[in-house]
């Protein structure tokens, strides 16, 4: 990005028309309609992808643009909504993500990760929202956006580290004069999901045009849309069996190590009967349907302010400033808390335990697996011991007995878990600029920003207090009476837990995340005043230096640190770290040949940036990087241009990747190779499962988590180094003079990243161990690094005792992607109206990820699974058709998403596991439900249509009406256990496919 003074621009000719064609052309709808208080001729021009001032010079990098007019027609309320319509951008964490949303929205360019691109505001970095260095799109002042430009490929030379996949640059209106206000409301056809937005912007020029100031305030509020309010998501559907499913943490309670029948093979996990009198005779249970509690649209409230000003102090110096502030509150709502397979010790004299339940514990068979196989039965306690323990209420009584069991119980009586994320953000910039000569200028600026997010977690049981409350031999007092302990009735039916019990079991907790970014930048740019012999434009340059200092911390209260919150997904450890970077950079644009036959223009572009990083750690890690770019454009004849660019970029490890301590959290896995009968049929497999921590007694009884979630352990690594990428683009721009109003672009992109900072996927971790089981596998680190629940042998359970899969962060990864972006635009006057047609599309050929050299090189374009988290289709485009009359516009937006299917590699892994387990007919009828239901293995191509009508009521007032998802398309149901919890929710993929249904929006804009 670079600014260029208006006075200098007046000395230059207008920018070549073909430069505009390199962007996405956007129609000037209803051009005859008076626009009232609109932006005047801007004093600065923003050029994304370059530090060179002069916008007249040809650029080699393709940039796509979304105009304010398009945003208004679509009635986008947030920056996330704007970007969601752009092909090539893969859905990331945002408003459609509930379980896994950290209170912020991010952008993911090309599916390479939301931490591999930079979000800019007028070419400036802003303070990130969290420890991964990502900027929260919720902080963008949508009311002031003039256009959004997206650049693909390595841009580290221009913007510094992190811009490996590209940048998204939100460009605001400058020199705004007047008063403008907007009020809008959006509602689904079913009457929920209300979204209200109001903005007011005012600006003025002063001191005879020497200065300008603009100020904008805005408010937004959205209501939740519950999954229980949509027919396709009322019930949780298991992706493998196709049946109604849910969570094994259910109600009534489930306990391991029960044997109601008192037989050799009677051990198992059983659920309390519906009336609370006994245990079910078999291991069958009623899965908990968590869908109705979850939401498709997270509730959101935001207040924001934005101000900018400039003033010519003298003919040689201009001061400028910009400030932005916002306060956002995002709520995620998920199913009730509880105790999720944690080990508990329960007295056999617990007052809520019935005789039948007590006997089932006492009758647990403690014979060895080999003995059990021959029919040997040895009960944990004899009937006499069990009966005596039933009345032994004093732990000092010699007849007092306890049983250890893993308990799962959903806290339905408490209500849903709610995480409220309140973020306060500000970023301020002050700078000075001026001219050194008529063609050379200088610019010096500094900026500082902070973001503070407070996460308040409500509605969580504390596992430690569940354990304490179960340690009771009367209904009035616990054995340990501290903290006001109230004995817990975990053996009754749903509804057996009283408000007094819940009051003791739950407590709120907080996690505070703070980030800061300090920046200083100095640039000298312009041209040398001379041109090469065959060119008319002068050689242009930019040189300068930059300094950035990042700091971030996560401060958790003791409850969050302990991992004691039932269903929180693990502990939230304290983290603190930072780093700073000094940089020097330079760019050069050399017009080589101009205005010659077959050489209307031939321009070379190059740049280099040197960076020195220092990490704030005791060992003082440091590293130096050099990034560079080279490109060119050739216009042989008027209306046709060929352009290409090659860039070497880097991404430095962020604070989370460097400083996060090792901890356990949740990921997704459909099939555990140790589950079911498989280990009984393969002694080597059984040895591996036992080596991973499964008790020998659980072999043959290990289950898959019905919710498709397992634990994993990972963390940061101070030994990480920057990852490196090489990217190149080549394309062409067409704007034939014989077809006025027509333009087209086509650009091939190729990005490869090595030494990538990555962690293995769940499939990678499982394949590394289980793909080739031998007698030595039980001692293979790839296998022993996986740690199981010490009671159940499963990969899920309490995070403190069940580390699960080992997903270690390293520099061993590789990523690559390539494809083609294309645009078509046509505008013409058809007599009774003006017609504007535009198309923006992307064909993605490949997107591969390899975590280590030993890992599978996984292709994810067109596929979905637990490994390919967010869907990236092969073909995707947006096409808009608009008819503009004098006082009225009508516009239709058509969005196309190509068909996708279940990842073939994961399907093959599922089949291999099914065959080992002895599943019946896994390739055909699959009676045992070991394979993903064939109905869920493909999502057909989707077409969405949005219709907008815009009325210019008067010179000052415009009314816009929009129907989104005009034909009320429903998302394809694929079940809830086929992919990542963050993106596969409510049986669908709501970040990719519209789960809200048809919506209506109305907006009114006034201008004075």
Automatic annotation (TrEMBL):
GO cellular component: cell outer membrane
Annotated motif TonB C-terminal box, positions: 991-1008
Coiled-coil regions listed in the entry: none
Positions occupied by motif TonB box: 44-50
Compartment annotation: Cell outer membrane
Record InterPro entries: Beta-barrel_TonB, Beta-barrel_TonB_sf, Plug_dom, Plug_dom_sf, TonB-dep_rcpt-like, TonB_box_CS, TonB_rcpt_CS
Keywords: Cell outer membrane, Membrane, Receptor, Signal, TonB box, Transmembrane, Transmembrane beta strand, Transport
Record's bilayer topology term: Multi-pass membrane protein
PANTHER family documented for this protein: PTHR47234, TONB-DEPENDENT RECEPTOR
Protein family membership: Belongs to the TonB-dependent receptor family.
Identification of the protein by name: TonB-dependent receptor
